[in-house]
Design brief:
alpha+beta, Peptide Deformylase, 5-stranded antiparallel sheet, two-stranded antiparallel sheet
Length: 209
């Protein structure tokens, strides 16, 4: 199952996501049938791969819960375009529920170019991210797990955790950076509003039957 990815301008992307109280609960992405968290994670990973992403947070599919998925890829540029890592190079997949980040060093890096599946086509350098991070989270069985990472993967965790707190990577940059993309962002806002209107109309039609 591939979910539509919510775009810049969608209010759900500015909400602070709520914790998952029970990993055995069912959840419902607006416009779709309710599923288990395990099925949701599988669908989120499929959606992420379809969009050539490295991470995807639940709010990006319209579900404001504290959960994200991510993939670690092999560093092998010969196997494909480095901007669109092929799924065949995935080393491991991650599903993190109620993640809590800790930073293992005060050092930050600003050299990576960041993008976002909810802000397609816009990439910027200069986002300061901690170089080393530890994340504590629940897995799909409800067990607490701990992982550590540095450099790019640590950046991915920070980017996805931002989504759980209603933030975009552009928020870490000077306002003139966002202003420089005003036209593109306005178009995303228009598309976001149109999709929400479609959802409301579909729900109203369903209720009228």
């Amino acid at each position: 199952m591939i979910y539509p990815i919510r775009l810049y301008g969608d209010p759900v992307l500015r909400q602070k996501a709520r914790p998952v109280e029970d990993v055995h609960q069912t959840v419902q992405v607006p416009g779709f049938e309710a599923v288990s968290l395990k099925t949701l994670a599988e669908n989120m990973l499929e959606t992420m791969y379809q969009a050539s992403g490295v991470g995807l947070a639940a709010p990006q599919i319209g579900l404001p819960i504290r959960m994200f998925v991510a993939a670690e890829y092999a560093d092998d540029e010969e196997e494909g375009d480095e901007d669109r890592p092929p799924r065949s190079t995935v080393l491991r997949e991650m599903v993190m529920i109620n993640p809590r980040l800790e930073f293992l060093s005060k050092k930050k890096d600003v050299s990576y170019q960041e993008g976002c599946l909810s802000i397609p086509g816009i990439y910027e350098e200069g986002v300061a991210r901690y170089l080393e991070a530890r994340v504590r989270y629940l897995d799909l069985e409800g067990n607490e797990q701990v992982m550590e990472a540095e450099d790019y993967l640590a950046r991915v965790w920070q980017h996805e955790t931002d989504h759980l707190n209603g933030k975009f990577f552009l928020d870490h940059l000077p306002t003139e950076v966002t202003d420089s993309h005003r036209k593109a962002l306005a178009e995303m806002q228009r598309r976001a509003k149109a999709y929400l209107r479609e959802l409301r109309e579909a729900e109203a039609a369903k209720g009228a039957r």
